[in-house]
Amino acid sequence: MPELPEVEVVRRGLAEHVTGRRLSRVLVHSDRAVRRHPGGRADFAAILAGRRIEQVRRRGKYLWMVLDDGDALLAHLGMSGQFRIGEPADGRPEQFDATDGAAPVLDHPHLRVRFIFDDGGPTLDFLDQRTFGGLAFAPDGADLPDAIAHIARDPLDPEYSIDAAVAAIRAKHTELKRALLDQTIVSGIGNIYADEALWRAKLHYRRPTATLSRPAARAVLESATEVMSEALAVGGTSFDALYVNVNGESGYFDRTLDAYGREGLPCRRCGTAIRREAFMNRSSYLCPRCQRRPRGLPV
Q1: Distance between terminal CA atoms of the chain?
Q2: Is 3 tagged catalytic?
Q3: What's the CA gap between 137 and 126, in Å, rounded?
């Protein structure tokens, strides 16, 4: 699933292409893509027509487009959602003949929603192979949609407080990696960057948060900030074609990952083979020498 750097890359690409443009039509190909909109696909399309996009914002792994009347269009990419800049709408009327917000012609097998602008320029397509992502209209959601009000600020947010995040982690009675993935404590961190931050901080993912010192908690959060900033600088982490920018370009941070996905390869710090362990129906990657298992922790 895309994490903070990948979603921020998408936000920047969207902002460049859609800010200041007015929607003329919205064509919904999949009910599932707008499953959280009570009025269904026709109402979703109708309520967005004529709205101008003022800016594109993000909190953690969520994006929203601020509309000119104080409302917003909220998006979550899920596992495979993508926003892609399409072809100009002018000169292709056969692609946009539709009623009730549904288009009959699919020129991409995973096209779920198409946004058409009144300037006749490039469309914006929402693609989603696995259909876990989705879009939702957020009334009065320009500043922060109600649906994500519980999501904590992320390490790249100017108003993020590392002291508050440290206190929140230490107050939890759970394991360290579970706390890092808890989006109500600090948002944007997923499985990849949690493993990378823990490797950098030399902390085991199952370390009980109740026994974590303030310096140790700060160290892992600072490591998360560092690794996600570095990933953002090179376009994020792309393991396959599902993780791309709005222009289809992939990120390159996977080439410098220190822990995630490196099972059996030597630790870049001590040379010990990286180990993969089962964790929450997924995997955790760690160096068993640099990130020692806490004493008394059951296997």
Answers
A1: 28
A2: yes
A3: 15
172: annotated active-site residue? no
Residue where a domain terminates, one of 98, 120, 148: 148
| Among candidate residues 50, 117, 111, the one with its CA nearest the CA of residue 89 | 117
195 in the same domain as 88: no
Q: Is residue 230 part of a domain?
A: yes
Whether 127 and 185 share a structural domain:
no
Q: Is residue 175 part of a domain?
A: yes
- Residue 157 in any domain: the answer is no
Range of the domain at 88: 4-148
Name the catalytic one among 35, 92, 269, 282. 282
Q: Tell me, what amino acid is at 151?
A: I
Is 255 a catalytic site residue?
A: no
Report the C-alpha gap between 255 and 268 in whole angstroms.
13
**Among 201, 204, 195, which Cα is nearest to 253's?**
195
Domain count along the chain: 2
Closest to 191 measured CA to CA, from 82, 288, 290, 282: 282
Does residue 292 lie within any of the structural domains? no
Which residue out of 3, 8, 175, 196 is catalytically annotated?
3
Q: Name the more confident of 246 and 202.
A: 202
Q: Tell me the per-residue pLDDT of 242-267, one tens digit each, with 9 for 90 and over.
A: 455 565 554 444 567 899 999 999 99
- Residue 282 annotated as catalytic: yes
pLDDT tens per residue, range 62-80: 999 999 999 999 999 988 8
The arrangement of strands across the sheet holding 81-88 comes to 23-28, 111-117, 122-128, 81-88
Q: Is 58 left (phi over 0), alpha (psi -120 to 50) or beta?
A: beta
Catalytic residue among 51, 58, 61, 262: 61
The pTM is what? 0.86
The reply to whether 16 and 105 lie within a common domain is: yes
**Active-site annotation holder among 2, 5, 145, 155:** 2
